[in-house]
Sequence to fold (435 residues):
Amino acid sequence: MASTDETGQLGQQASPFGATPPAPPAGYTAGQSARMPRWLPRAMMLALALVGLFQLGSWAFHELTGLLINILIAFFAALAIEPAVSRMSSRGMRRGLATFLVFIGLLIAIAGFVTLLGSMLAGQIIKIVEDFPNYLDSVISWINAHFNTDLKRVDVQEGLLRSDWLRSYVQNSATGVLDLSGQVLGGLFQLLMITLFAFYFAADGPRLRRALCSVLPPARQTEVLRAWEIAVDKTGGYLYSRGLMALISGVAHYVLLEFLSVPYAPVLAVWVGLVSQFIPTIGTYLAGALPMLIAFTVDPWYALWVLVFVVLYQQFENYVLQPKLTAKTVDIHPAVAFGSVIAGTALLGAVGALIAIPAVATLQAFLGAYVKRYDVTDDPRVQGHRSRGTSILTRLRSLLEGRRGADTEDSAHSAEAPESESGSGRASGEGSTPA
Fold:
């Protein structure tokens, strides 16, 4: 009996909560407790498969980022020429032929402009090279006159030819030419790819919309077609605003160049207008560099005047002209337009800056139909007019007026107190007079 009691006490001490653990069922063995659950291998294989698919998708997206960006540019280019193609096809012309004619017209205009600009630039470069000794002589004479030196052009030329800096610069330039040629070839290939995709998107626009709507219910089809139409309108409005700003910029720079008697003023004005508006981020610097170079051949001070005018006009365009025109043609707030350009540049670089405004305008116009709006009450605070009671100066003024009123009342009470006492004395005297 003693041993049995000790065994029971030991069992109770072994239980952490004062209760004995349940006994295992009949037929239970140690091998069954170590067996892996049936669902665990499948779960592990599924997790490994998901991780592998994620890695594969991430790698594929990273490799195809350039292609996706080119397709996006081609899509917006097709939206830009959609009105012209649709107008020509509605008059009985085949859509493919209409798209081909639009592309041919754009290609002829671009090729003519590039050819004219290239011939002008080549002539000016040759003139600069021929007149370089005269410029060098004028610079050397100015240095000798102001710094009391005795420099000669021959000595300067020999020093430049024998310098290690020139040799290293020539070597780096040779390597840079090879890199530049590769970049030019890559850019031409991308341009060809974008042109082909844009042609297919514009020529097969109805077929593409039909294929996209065929996998959607009727309600969704209406929304997709409405979004497509909004994208066409907003992209056209954006190009219209850019073209209008290019016209204003070209006219302004033409007046300046003609006033300074800079040669090829009309071509340079067209260059400044187009490049500064349709090449984002660096377009302004490319547009201003060429007129400065041509003006330098006439007079170095003219190049400085052109630089000052370009900088001032760019500030005027960024803060005055562009927000107003963009807000009216694309129908978005200037702050939203500016923020969308910054966000597009951060995400996709120059391409993002170019397509950010029409993309945001399309999204804003599409979502505007699903946002319920209410009438605003006629409250002055809506217009920014605050009530006078909330002003700190008004509160201080009312507090001072209250103190003055309290002081006035105190003085009035103190003046009335003697009169009341004398009045009460006379009343008591009259009442005490004997009859």
Notes: The chain has 15 helices and no strands.
